[in-house]
Structures are given as C-alpha cells and as structure tokens.
Amino acid sequence: MRRKKQRGNDQADVNMTPMLDIVFILLIFFIVTATFLQEEGIDMRPPPPSDEPAQDNPVILVQIDDQNRVFVNQESTSEFRVLAAVSRLRAEQPQSAVLIEVADDARHGTTVMIWDEMRANNIPVSISRQAAGSGSGS
Fold this sequence. Notes:
transmembrane
C-alpha cells in the first residue's frame, strides 16, 4: 500500500514587516522634505486708537447678512455688482472708504470676493462683524 503524501498548504506566507518599514521610511521622508506654505489671512483686528483727530472721510457701508444678501449703503444689490455701486458712490466722494459688515453666518466666499475687488481697485477697505441685533438694509 502506498501511503499518500500529505500535502502542506501551497500558499506561501508573505512577511509584511519589510514593506511596512519601507512605507514608514517613505512617509518620514515626505514629511521632512515637504514645504509648507504660509497662507496670508485677513486681519480682523481693528487698528489701534490714535491721538490724531479723526478725519471725516465718508464711509460706504457694504453689508452681508446671514442669508448672503448684499447691501451697499442700505440698498440691495448683487454680490457681483458691489464694485460698480461703490465706484459710483466714490465718484461723488473720492475720499470715501469701504466698510464691509459681515454677519456670522454669511458665506466667506462672498466676503473675500468683495474684499479682493476693493483691494484690486485701490479702494481702502476694512471688515467688521455685524452686531448680533442689527438687521440689514430692508
């Protein structure tokens, strides 16, 4: 009688330790060699109080409410037409500056778009947070 050979498991075990070592070495390499960009944010701090007398420059108020509606001096407008409205008002009073008053729940994209438009056209601009109880232009 022949004895049957017992066959072992034909599947070979793969040792994962060297592969994990390589992955961790690559991870450390990419972390060490990565360059991190310092992105510039919008400075929301008010300027320090000065001893000089306040100038009576008129302010153009741009309000963005919590429903993302935009108002320029209490008049409703599209977020894409703010620059045109501000330019029209600055034609009458060239020394005027823009104050963007933003509600807490307003979209940041709208605020940044208006801010960038003002800065790109050399219009003095600042941002403030809308008071909790104040409503917009309607």
